[in-house]
Write a structure and sequence with these properties.
The protein is an alpha/beta fold. The chain contains 7 helices and 19 strands. The protein has a 7-stranded mixed sheet with strand order 7-8-9-10-11-18-19, with helices on one face. A 6-stranded mixed sheet has the order 1-2-3-4-5-6. Strands 14-13-15-12-16-17 form a 6-stranded parallel sheet. A hairpin with a 2-residue loop joins strand 9 and strand 10. Helix 1 runs antiparallel to helix 4. The longest helix is centred in the middle third of the chain and has 17 residues. Bound molecules: zinc ion. Zinc ion binds next to loops.
Length: 330
């Protein structure tokens, strides 16, 4: 049996028989970084990513103190060579700059989704279908119980929550991850004319977005005065009670997370939870995998077994990617 074109090597994804790692956490010689969330980035000798992802990584990691990093910015839909590999990036619709990668070698196209979301997005490049022969797909919400309502429906529900809080004379506080979720809701609300205040951590990320063409009208950082009447506050969940939030009184708080769809989860200290997700839900994962035309699919990150089983039911050869697979398949 032939070796699959992708392998897990010491816990890191690597294109088989090459130095190219995908979203490695440990320092490696050469890595493609799909997006700048903390569980996908590391300091590498050479980093291939979109310009926005490189900027967000630099913001997050700072300048390297010892060994320098060579940054190789890549644009969407602009194939380029790397040794015997041809690489091409496609938008992933997850956060600004998020990219899927297609690696072609010897006529076989390997597609890697990274984190992705096929729903329309307000602050990131919309996802595109990446045709490929072998697909490596994330499976964060790869279980049949994860079916999200349409994003616009969820956003309207958040807006109603905001309107109700404001009309009751309270400050709506929306809790979302500092990179991606915060900008999605801020873009939606600020474009609709709502004055917003953000935690300084979110403000710093917004600056990187703005430098890459995503404007946030009506958004200011929180100061010592807190929020004024009529303003909406956006803050990362773990910083809801941080010093910067001290001036925000009479709050009504909602958390924005795909996990809100999971009835078994409870969120302490919030008045509402909305399933605003920057990942594809279960039906979207199935639809996407089929749309790529891949004859073989490997699932990674999350509900790998359930998603692979569902894909097999659809007639696609699918299995979770495992470290020991090399021994079984070589
Ligand atoms: Zn992510």
């Amino acid at each position: 049996m032939r070796r699959p074109p992708i392998e897990l090597h010491h816990g890191e994804l690597r294109v088989t028989g090459s130095l190219l790692h995908l979203d490695a956490r440990r320092r490696v010689e050469c890595a493609f970084v799909s997006h700048a969330h903390g569980d996908h980035i590391g300091r590498h000798d050479r980093t291939i990513a979109t310009a926005a992802t490189l900027a967000l990584m630099q913001h997050r990691l700072g300048e390297p103190k010892r060994r320098p990093t060579e940054r190789l910015p890549a644009s969407f839909r602009a194939p380029f060579g790397l040794g015997e590999l041809t690489l091409e990036l496609f938008p992933a619709g997850h956060v600004l700059g998020s990219a899927q990668l297609r690696v072609t070698r010897g006529g076989i196209a390997l597609g890697y989704t990274g984190d992705f979301c096929t729903e329309p997005t307000h602050a990131a490049e919309p996802a595109e279908v990446m045709g490929c022969d072998v697909l490596v797909v994330e499976s964060t919400f790869g279980h049949p119980r994860y079916v999200f309502p349409p994003k616009e429906e969820t956003l309207l529900a958040v807006r109603k929550f905001v309107d109700d809080a404001l009309s009751d004379g309270t400050t709506p506080v929306l809790l979302g991850y500092a990179l991606g979720k915060a900008q999605e809701i801020l873009k939606y609300l600020s474009d609709a004319g709502y004055p917003c205040r953000v935690h300084p951590v979110v403000h710093a990320v917004n600056k990187v977005y703005e430098a890459h063409g995503v404007a946030f009208p009506n958004v200011k950082p929180l100061g010592p005065e807190g929020a004024l009447a009529g303003e909406v506050v956006v803050c990362p969940p773990h910083l809801a009670w941080s010093p910067a939030m001290r001036g925000v009184r009479r709050r009504r708080t909602a958390i924005l997370t795909g996990w809100a769809i999971d009835g078994s989860r409870s969120f302490r200290g919030v008045d509402a939870a909305f399933p605003l997700s920057d990942h594809a839900d279960f039906p979207s994962l199935l639809r996407y995998a089929k749309a790529t035309g891949a004859k073989r699919v490997f699932t990674v990150h999350g509900h790998e077994d359930e998603l692979a089983a569902a894909l097999r039911k659809e007639g696609i050869r699918a299995q979770p990617l495992r470290e020991e697979m090399q021994l079984e398949l070589i």
